[in-house]
C-alpha cells in the first residue's frame, strides 16, 4: 500500500467517524451525569445568586426543547390550523395540552410565506431534538397560546402597555398582530441559545445548538425586518414592537439585553435596528432563569406561569428573582 493510499483511507475513516458521531448525537453522553471537571467552577445557570451544580448537556437541550415546543405549536397552529402530531409530544415529565390558537387568515402573501417557512423550521427543531435526545427527551408541557383576556399573549401585551385591564390581544386576528406575537418569542430564542452555549461541554452538541441558534437568528431578523418595513406605513406597529422589547427587559431584570426595532436619526440619516447588538457588535445572551422570566411572564422566581401554566419539563424550570 502506498503512502497516498494510506492517507486517503485515513481521511475516509475520519469522515465515517464524523458521520457516525452525528448519527449517534447525544445518545452516548446523555444520562444523569452532570457537567463537572477539575478546576472548573460550577456555573449559575438559573440566574440566581451564588454558584450551583451546572446542568448536564441533556438538561440544557431539554430546556431548549421546551421552548421549541412552544414556538412550533404557535406557528403550526397559526399557519396550518393544527398542532404537532401526538407522536411528537411524549417523553419524560408531565405531558400537557395546548390551550387556544387558531389559523391566521393572512392578507399579505409575503408574511404568509415567511410564516410557513418558520413553522416548518420549528417543527423540524422539535423532531431533531427529540430524536437525538431519545428516551431522555422531555414531554411537551402544558402550553397557553390562547387569546382570552387572561391568556399569556394578552398578559404579555398588557405588560407592554398595548392593551388595558380586562382586554384581550388576538395574535391570530391579522398579519400585524401575528408578527407582534412572533416578536415576543424570536429574540428570546436567540439570546437563550447563545446563553446556553457555555453550558454545553460536548463539541458535537455545541455545533448542533449553534446551528439552531443561527436559524433562530434568521427568524428573528426576518420578523424584525417585516415589522420595521410595515412600521413605515403604520408607525404604531413599530411603537408596539419597541414596547414589547421594553417589557421583556422589565421581566428579565436587565436594562440592555433587549432592543426595539426603531433605530436612530431622522430623514435620510435614519438607521434601523434590525439586529440588536452590544457595543462590540455581539448578540446578547440570557441565562435560563431570564428566559423563563419572559415565558412565565414574571420578574420573580417561579416554577410556572405565562405560556407554560404548569411550568416546563426537565431539570431547569425556575425563573430568576429579579
Automatic annotation (TrEMBL):
SUPFAM superfamilies: Ferritin-like. It holds the Pfam family Ferritin_2. CDD domains: Ferritin_like. The keyword Repressor does not apply. The chain crosses the membrane at residues 25-46. InterPro entries: Ferritin-like_SF (IPR009078), Pigment-catalase-like (IPR052965), TAT_signal (IPR006311). It comes from the Bacteria. Keywords: Membrane, Transmembrane, Transmembrane helix. This is Ferritin-like domain-containing protein. It comes from Sphingomonas alpina. The lineage of its organism: Bacteria, Pseudomonadati, Pseudomonadota, Alphaproteobacteria, Sphingomonadales.
Amino acid at each position: 500500500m502506498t503512502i497516498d493510499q494510506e492517507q486517503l483511507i485515513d481521511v475516509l475513516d475520519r469522515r465515517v467517524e464524523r458521520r457516525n458521531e452525528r448519527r449517534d448525537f447525544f445518545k452516548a453522553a446523555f444520562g444523569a451525569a452532570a457537567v463537572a471537571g477539575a478546576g472548573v467552577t460550577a456555573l449559575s445557570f438559573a440566574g440566581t445568586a451564588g454558584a450551583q451544580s451546572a446542568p448536564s448537556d441533556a438538561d440544557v437541550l431539554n430546556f431548549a426543547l421546551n421552548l421549541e415546543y412552544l414556538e412550533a405549536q404557535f406557528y403550526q397552529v397559526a399557519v396550518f390550523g393544527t398542532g404537532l402530531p401526538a407522536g411528537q409530544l411524549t417523553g419524560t415529565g408531565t405531558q400537557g395540552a395546548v390551550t387556544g390558537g387558531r389559523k391566521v387568515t393572512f392578507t399579505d402573501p409575503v408574511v404568509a410565506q415567511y410564516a410557513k417557512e418558520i413553522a416548518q423550521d420549528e417543527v423540524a427543531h422539535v423532531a431533531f431534538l427529540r430524536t437525538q435526545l431519545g428516551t431522555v427527551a422531555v414531554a411537551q408541557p402544558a402550553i397557553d397560546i390562547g387569546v382570552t383576556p387572561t391568556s399569556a399573549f394578552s398578559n404579555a401585551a398588557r405588560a407592554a402597555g398595548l392593551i388595558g385591564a380586562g382586554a384581550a390581544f388576538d395574535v391570530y386576528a391579522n398579519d400585524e398582530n401575528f408578527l407582534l406575537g412572533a416578536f415576543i418569542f424570536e429574540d428570546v430564542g436567540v439570546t437563550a441559545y447563545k446563553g446556553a452555549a457555555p453550558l454545553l461541554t460536548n463539541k458535537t452538541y455545541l455545533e448542533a445548538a449553534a446551528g439552531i441558534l443561527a436559524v433562530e437568528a434568521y427568524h428573528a431578523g426576518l420578523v424584525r425586518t417585516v415589522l420595521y418595513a410595515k412600521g413605515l406605513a403604520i408607525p404604531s406597529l413599530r411603537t408596539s414592537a419597541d414596547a414589547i422589547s421594553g417589557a421583556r427587559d422589565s421581566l428579565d431584570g436587565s436594562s440592555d439585553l433587549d432592543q426595539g426595532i426603531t433605530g436612530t436619526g431622522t430623514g435620510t440619516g435614519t438607521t434601523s435596528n434590525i439586529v440588536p447588538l452590544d457595543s462590540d457588535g455581539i448578540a446578547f445572551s440570557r441565562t435560563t432563569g431570564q428566559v423563563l422570566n419572559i415565558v412565565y411572564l414574571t420578574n420573580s422566581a417561579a416554577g410556572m406561569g405565562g405560556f407554560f401554566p404548569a411550568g416546563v419539563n426537565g431539570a431547569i424550570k425556575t425563573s430568576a428573582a429579579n
